[in-house]
Specification:
With 129 residues, the chain is an alpha+beta fold. The chain is 47% helix and 20% strand. It has a four-stranded antiparallel beta sheet.
Length: 129
């Protein structure tokens, strides 16, 4: 005795994949399967392009951060010397702890540090966003 696909070759009307809206139409069913395959392939290609663009953007952001590093201070939350202070412009500063993840932003280095200090215990983590 053969496998189930041998049976469907002999009796295509018994194959549920050959029915469209309650009507036996193997050609239309195949066309619909081909269309769905093209859609899923197009979606996969789109997702791939989006992911590549996001990776490039992340690399650019990391490069900008590296260039904007002003100093490293002691973290007000964990106490380690891991609080990176960035200066992105004259009025945009940011502190991010590389150990515990606490962060703060402000118009000056002191404002950014104060905002990070005020966020103690809130569970902020710049790496999770």
């Amino acid at each position: 005795m053969g496998d189930w696909y041998d049976y469907f070759e002999d009796f295509p009307e018994e194959n549920p994949a050959n029915w469209v809206n309650g009507t036996f139409n193997p050609k239309l069913a195949q066309q619909m399967r081909d269309i769905e395959l093209k859609k899923s392939t197009a979606n996969e290609e789109a997702y791939s392009l989006i992911k590549k663009a996001q990776e490039k953007q992340k690399i650019k952001e990391e490069e900008r951060k590296a260039q904007s590093l002003l100093r490293i201070r002691d973290c007000p939350q964990c106490g380690f010397n891991e609080l990176n202070v960035y200066c992105f412009s004259k009025q945009l500063f940011r502190c991010e702890c590389q150990d515990c993840g606490i962060y703060g932003s402000g118009k000056s280095e002191q404002d950014a540090y104060k905002n990070a200090y005020d966020a103690l215990g809130e569970g902020l983590d710049w790496r999770s966003s």
